[in-house]
# Entry
Amino acid sequence: MTDITGQPTPTPTARARHFGAVAARGRRQDGVFHAVTLAAALAVLLVLGGVIVSLIAGAWPAVRTFGVDFLLTETWNPVTDKFGALAPIYGTLVTSTIAMAIGVSVGFGIAVFITEICPGWLKRPLGTAIELLAGIPSIIYGIWGLFVLAPFLQHNVQPFLIESFEDVPVLEALFQGPPYGIGVLTAGLILGIMVLPFITSITREVFDTVPPMLKESAYGLGATTWEVVWKVVLPYARVGVVGGVMLGLGRALGETMAVTFVIGNAHRISASLLAPGTTISAAIANEFTEAVGDIYASSLILLGLILFVITFGVLALAKLLLRRAQARSGGTR
Amino acid sequence: MTLYARRKLVNRLALTLAGGAAALGLFWLTAILWTLLAKGVAGIDLALFTEMTPPPGDAGGLLNAIFGSLVMTVVAVLVGAPVGILAGTYLAEYARYEQGGRLGEVVRFVNDILLSAPSIIIGLFVYEVMVVRMGHFSGWAGAMALAVIAVPVVLRTTDDMLTLVPAGLREAAAALGASRWKVIVTIAYRAAGSGMMTGVLLAIARVSGETAPLLFTALNNQFWSGDMNAPMANLPVVIFQFALSPYENWQRLAWSGALVITATVLLLNVVARMLAARNRGNEA
# Structure
């Protein structure tokens, strides 16, 4: 018997054996491919494990020398090898607080504008423009902040702040001292601009998960656009919005270059927001290559470990909240 | 004021503020881009791309820095992209179908954390693992730090894009007798191709602007060096040092470098976005 090309047709058993061999080869290749992808996935876990182990190992000398005091001391003196993390931790928290105050209010406003007010044709360009803000490298924010924003604040905004709060109790302390331009306030402002796109895009996403029926019902009852946003959309999207805010916070806490440019890098805690300060990441970026002596370098790595623990906690919480929000809107993950 | 009038007023006020917020967001973007153009464009000339970084006061360009950045970015993506794609494949093509398996979820969770983790921490990690072991700063260490940053971006996009591929496509191929890995490589990858490309482009964009992880891995180099085993010049760190220097010619170069980086990164972002939009168009 021959087939259409004139080749002899294999007997049924030969054909079965051939297909069996093909299938077996496929299964073997399947196994290899599965193993390779699994290895790549495990590599991701390995990186996280490696980060934790190497930070702890590097920070160990400092942990042994200073113990808990490291967290409670303001001194940072490379000459006498006395190090404490209080000033950078304080700076990190204060700049992030300022950043979140700006990022959340403006980001929320933009999300409301894009989802509820903006005409259809403007939605995409506007959304893209805001997301491009997230694409600009942080070093660019840094040099822009140092050469444009800081002088502007120094000449136009800070003198005004100092004057207007001169005799107000409490606030007076926040805005005192000479207007340097650079300092905690400027760093917080830059960070606020940087986290803005993250908060906006996630807030938009969760706003879009609100069922139209819910909004239309509220409109049907005569609610204004603002009332729909504030009393229907926001309560429905609350968990997701908080998740987005936490994600932004995670970014703000760890942001390095932009802050390094504008914060002034002074290891001290001042009540005034106009004074120079430092953050954990700025201290590492500035001093690590110049850190001579084991304890100095180790203290900086310990700072890194503290930063990692804080951001890990914040980001993990953000992820859990966002997952909960997505599960509710019928998403798969 | 009647209740009705007050509600209307509050509404108008709130919406105006929201509009103001949008205007403010656009204002930052234009302000930053405008400054970059105003200060950087004057320095964009042939010398910028053909001459080395100069000593203070001399003329020069950024050739060694641009070259170093290119080399390290390429190595980082060559290492990071395959790992990201394979791990993303595991999540979307294997872990998704495993009943009761937690590994996929854990990996996805950890990856999302790495995606937003401070990049300076990655720098410290690579410093401890590579620089301390080798005893010196090197281009390899810089490239590895960038690779660690690239992986989560690629992984996330690959996972998302493969999940979007309709199951019917895979089933059709499987019904024709294709083995599972053939289904993934020839069917799923092809269907999700441009989307996965988006991830790689976004990773390149992210990596090419990163400064913090390079500070103490690749360090910097005043001179031309193609040796990955030695400290390597790179654009972000050069910008950092030159911008903070008191020398006017260094500052000018920093602005030009900043313009080059931003233009590259934004261009990559826009192209990636267009690719992603086309990918979505294919499915519809």
Summary: Chain B touches chain A through 94 residues (CB under 8 Å). Residues 3-43 of chain B form one domain.
